[in-house]
Amino acid sequence: MNPAREDSRSLEEDETRRRRRPVMPEMATEGNGGCDARDWDEEGYRKSILQERELRCRTVFRTAFAPSQSPNPETVVVASSDGAVASYSLASCISATSQPMHVDKVVNQKTLPGPLLAEPLFIIKGHKGPAYDLKFYWQGEECLLFSCGDDGHLRGWNWKELLNSDIHGDMQGNSLKPILDLANPQHEGPWGALSPIPENNAIAIDEQEGSVFSAAGDACAYSWDVETGKQKMVFKGHADYLHCITARKSCHQIITGSEDGTTRIWDCRSGICTQVIRPEKNFKSKVSSWVSCVATDTSESWLACGTSTGLSVWSLLSSECIFSINSHSPVQDLLFDDHQILAVGSEPVLTRFSINGAALSQIKCAPQSAFSVSLHPSGVIAIGGYGALVDVLSQYGSHLCTFCCAGLDT
Predict the structure, then answer these.
(1) What is the residue range of 382's domain?
(2) pLDDT at 210
(3) Which secondary structure element, helix H or strand E, spans residue 51, and what is its range?
(4) Integer Cα distance of 368 and 353 in angstroms
(5) Number of C-alpha atoms within 13 angstroms, CB side, residue 199?
(6) Nearest C-alpha neighbor of 401 from the set 135, 122, 159, 73
(7) 237 with 264: CB under 8 angstroms?
(8) Are 104 and 114 in contact (CB under 8 A)?
(9) Which helix (H) or strand (E) holds 6?
(10) Is residue 107 part of a domain?
């Protein structure tokens, strides 16, 4: 399991436990004001407590806008900590915001409306254990949805087949199989013993080379041929497990970020590391940090690195740091929006930075800890995180809708 995610989640869980205590359901009262225990529903109460706990603890680790012909976003896909891969109609979620909410929370002994519990277009059991990342892969007219997770598998799903699946008849996705199922290799230890299969924390795509890449828990990155399903390359050099990966397609490179505090740039054809970047050296803080997320702009000339202690931007042409800033909370995901940077982390805030490091705006978001920020070409933003929440914002920063993702058991 990814310690960075676990640390932020455990803090949120402790705080949530302190703030929210389950309220005992009222029992029928007799005329004298006493309680009638004969109407007590023990099983119903137990089920409600378990469902509330499961909702509080479930996390959306990745959001992704599905490709479509429409200029406006239609569908958002999520990867969750219960291993689910699910898709949601944005139009349905937005229209439902004016209706009564479905999930309640308890504050000061009072039940208040919570976020909409949205019904997915489809939901499948993508992985055993948490699903950490999602990426779309276009090949001609065929579109694949790749997912990865704690089970060490990288799976490719036919997107049209997923959309046509019946969530009511196939809720667990038992009969819906991926067309690609790639498993990380096990390493042989002393006396011939095999190590556990390392988890996959992130995915990168390069359609030009027909490759999909994974960042794994054994400190290695892997390259797979999408057509044959065979492993093409192993990238070794990090000293600790990988959090993130992105492809620099114009240069046939990948860029990885690790728990060891470094960002490395790799040549995809030789597997050699061509450059090591140490973002923490640009911070005044003496606390050791990990690299949690990396992103390049559309020109692939600029690199943004988010760490447990801050954010830095680098010129890939000159290998120089453009700016670096400290933050009192980890940056857990970021991306470029033209010449600006959107970043989220372990606080419920979406921050927009200029390319020079100035904070241009901050917008409060629903997840108390956000692990994913996604941007549609229209400017719509989706933020996913703790509590199974997804917050959707317009290009002007207004909240279009906030919904809670259904689990496999709901």
Answers:
(1) 57-98+114-405
(2) 94
(3) helix 42-57
(4) 20
(5) 21
(6) 73
(7) yes
(8) yes
(9) helix 3-19
(10) no
